[in-house]
Amino acid sequence: KQIYPGTCRKLEVSWGWKNQKLPSWRLRVGEEFSINSGDFVVRRADGYIAYHLATVVDELTLGISEVVRGDDLRMALPSQLALIDALGQNPLNYEHVPVVCDSEGRKLSKRVNSEGLEAFRENGISSPKVIGLLAASLDLVPKGSELTCDELLSDLIKRKFQIKKVFVNL
Questions:
Q1: Alpha-carbon gap, residue 10 to 92, rounded angstroms
Q2: How does pLDDT run across 30-74, given as a tens digit for each residue?
Q3: Cβ distance 67 to 93 under 8 Å?
Q4: Which residues pair with 49 in a beta bridge?
Q5: What's the mean pLDDT in 87-95?
């Protein structure tokens, strides 16, 4: 990951329009975060709020304390921790899991119109089989398992200490 070197850190930046453009805003991170995240954008030049700010504020507002995301978002973690610190909040617990891929190894994504659960339904695959496929992809159950959400949750509660070990080792 490339760290922003702070080129514009000491510039006087306006809050509003200038020369028909909005400036992007970067969070000036504290020294403890500068090595892993550097200053990062919280409002883009097109006026939209950046991912880091949007997700952190959303999670804090909703009272979320545990976040599970795909490995593809692991590099966002230092910036999000810096933002949580800047907001004076306690850090959340983040876990990262393998990304779910299609049969050709491509990441499933709404952005590229990946097939979702409807494709499973249209192909006659039952909900318990889908839950088993997803849980098996995380090594939570043996491959070929078919179970309901309640059964999976019950099994996870019984094995909660084993699960922490699985996530720590990823």
A1: 30
A2: 888 887 888 888 998 888 999 999 999 999 999 999 998 888 899
A3: yes
A4: 43
A5: 92
User: Is the pLDDT assigned to residue 2 strictly greater than 90?
Assistant: no
The Cα–Cα gap between 104 and 95 comes to: 26
The pLDDT, as a whole number, for residue 1 is 65
- Who contacts 107 (Cβ-Cβ below 8 Å, separation ≥6)? 70, 72, 99, 100, 101, 114
Q: d(Cα 138, Cα 121) in Å, to the nearest integer?
A: 22
Kindly tell me the sign of the dihedral angle through the C-alpha atoms of 125, 128, 132, 134: positive
pTM score over 0.85: no
3-state SS of 63-77?
Answer: CCCEEEEEHHHHHHH
Residue identified by tokens 């610190």 is 85
Cβ 33 vs Cβ 85: under 8 Å: yes
Q: What mean pLDDT comes out for the span 121-148?
A: 88
Answer yes or no: are the C-beta atoms of 74 and 96 closer than 8 Å. yes
**Ramachandran sector of residue 5 (left: φ over 0; alpha: ψ -120 to 50; beta: rest):** alpha
